[in-house]
Amino acid sequence: MSRSPARPLLATLAAVLATAPATPATALPDTPQPAAHAAAAPRQPHNPESAIPAAVTQRHPHNPASVIPATVPLRHPPNRKSAVPAGATPGLARAPEPAPQVTGGLHLARAAAPDCATPPAPVRPVSAPPWPQQRYAPERLSPLATGAGVTVAVVDSGVDRRHPQLAGRVLDGTDLLDPGGDGSSDCAGHGTGVASIIAAAPRPGIAFRGLAPGARILPVRVSEQQVVAGRESGRTVSAEEFARAIRWAVDHDADVLNLSVVLYADNPAVRAAIGYAVDRDVVVVAAAGNLHDSGDPRPYPAAYEGVLGVGAIGVDGSRSAFSQTGPYVDLVAPGSDVLMAAPGRGHHRAEGTSYAAPFVAATAALLRQYRPGLTAAEVAQRILATTDPAPGDGRGGGYGAGVLNPFRAVTETGGGVATRPRPATALADDRPDPAALAARARRATAQDRALLVASLAATVVAVAALAALVVPRGTRRRWRPADPA
């Protein structure tokens, strides 16, 4: 997250709604210091007057004058492209939502979001934990920290508080598209998905949950723009309004700022707004963009000083093909085939660095609760220092310090940093890192399959050899038993 001072860079704006074991604590390694981000040659295919969500296709020639989610189309057979079953049985999905609460002096949102033209995702069961959840095992982190008391601002397409897993977790926010709104309208679904990766509550019969389910979400709506079949549609705010959204979130007590948005041009107002957040001890996390196939144009805010730029990996831990690889990538997190909440009561899958960023933002929320003595900069340093090594030593680039490991970030000691952690009595000392467990389970499954195949092959060879001896002799005896001696 080390950034050189602001400098003239690209001329385009595309705001894209773009775990060490729990054994006795080990010393935190020296904090890696990513190289300063070098200036990139200016690119002119974009219009630098607006922001675009980071959920666009990796080859789409974005119009940087609008804000668009940082997601990409899923590369799966047709049955995987449709909305994924919701995480509840029909009965559970229609259960009454928890009553609103007042937490830490902040009033939790109550107003209903307006209807959208896009139909909600169908409500069907989510019976198996999605792969990022298997990797990070948030249920093992919950005895230590849930993000309780921490406010994460999601500057995005809005957050639908009606979703059962977000009910009671969404604060009154603001709407820069429709003045007077509270940020709870989400016709694009991008912000709702991002918020659910951070704070979706565990629910009976639903295998999906957020990494920091105790965190509060502060929605700031800046775009409803999407890219469908290679074409942009929907409204978005200007870069200056996007900057105002960041300042608004900071002024309304955000502890962590999630920006799943990419701008492909340096903008003075946005740069100043990021500085405003950093100076006020806010952890800033941003998507690193999906345009690897388009030459890795420099993404903002990810490339600004003090921002954690997040790239995407797939289930095997390798960098997602679309994820950008420049020096602005500080670390990587799950961003391919990610399950998340959809507006209404359903769930769906999507891809993009937009969905890698909230895993890092959620980890920051866990740290801000569990180690309240850390500054925002120290939180970011700890997250980077506790990453897992990238596959193949990160050959090919785009991994930054490595792969996010929330468990290590929370549980490892601070190497001289004043951390003042909360008591960690709920976890036994001999329990290993969930990510390590998941990796061992995958290796064991592969080994079991290989042994089974080898055993079957050996059996076939033995049967064939036996047949080669028995059949000729049987033929000569016309299949009659030998005469008695």
From TrEMBL:
Keywords: Cell membrane, Hydrolase, Membrane, Protease, Serine protease, Signal, Transmembrane, Transmembrane helix. Residues 1-27 form the signal peptide. Residues 24-102 are annotated as: Disordered. Residues 24-44 have a biased composition (Low complexity). GO terms for cellular component: plasma membrane. SUPFAM superfamilies: Subtilisin-like. It is a single-pass membrane protein. Pfam families: Peptidase_S8. The active site is at 156 (charge relay system), 190 (charge relay system), 354 (charge relay system). It is found in: Cell membrane. One of its GO terms (biological process) is proteolysis. Residues 147-402 form the Peptidase S8/S53 domain. The chain crosses the membrane at residues 450-471. One of its GO terms (molecular function) is serine-type endopeptidase activity. InterPro entries: Peptidase_S8/S53_dom, Peptidase_S8/S53_dom_sf, Peptidase_S8_Asp-AS, Peptidase_S8_His-AS, Peptidase_S8_Ser-AS, Peptidase_S8_subtilisin-like, Peptidase_S8_subtilisin-rel, T7SS_pept_S8A_mycosin. The keyword Coiled coil does not apply. Belongs to the peptidase S8 family. This is Type VII secretion-associated serine protease mycosin. It comes from Micromonospora echinaurantiaca.
